[in-house]
Amino acid sequence: MRALFTAATGMEAQQAQIDTIANNIANVGTTGFKKSRAEFQDLFYETLRAPGAASDDGSVLPTGVQVGHGVQLSAINTIFAAGDRLNTGNQLDMAIDGLGFFQIQRPNGDSVYTRDGTFKLDGDGNVVTAQGYQLMPNITVPPDAISVTVLPDGTVNAEQAGNSQPINLGQINLVRFANPAGLRMAGGNLFEATNASGDPETGIPEQNGFGSIAAGFLEGSNVEVAEELVQMILAQRAFEVSSRVIQAGDEMLRIASQLSQ
What we know:
3-stranded antiparallel beta sheet; 23% helix; 2 domains; 261 residues; single chain; alpha+beta
């Protein structure tokens, strides 16, 4: 009976939907988190009669007879809509207002990318992430700096004790991709470039379509809890209905097996 296996694919699809929703809700408070959306497509069809086939009397049949075999997960797409701005007042916290990612360098030299602007200083005064990965291009804050200022165009200045004029510490660049949805999630609020995302394009904030930098702010998660709860209810009901189809198919097989008794 096709219905048993078709309904099973529906249950598997809704399980993937629930898994995606659970991850979104779990990261509702994660800085710079981008929610995911499960996408589905129907499986192959068994054609019992092709559309447009000729009938016994030679006429063309306007419709065919095709029986579907369920659903499958086609993709889990990352939605890069901006999250809410959170005012922290921390001079090293940065949010990107618009298009772009911060470029981060791992200890092995690989580049990864993030929207999480929670930066700190290491023992040498380098601006790093919570994992200790350096922001690129590298910005080093001198130990006698009283304060650090990041301008919307990415210029980093510092005030030193005994010096009335701020000194320039460097320039923060942003990176963008032709297809951000093609980035690979690496955990730790980091993304890795892939063939699907395209090569990274580096630019200066507020120029050529890149976003600006808002110092003293962080970008919150773009997860909407109410929306996720509604999707969770729908997925739960769809899972329940698919399980009832299996129960109905099992009951039909039971009845059929009793006909020979």
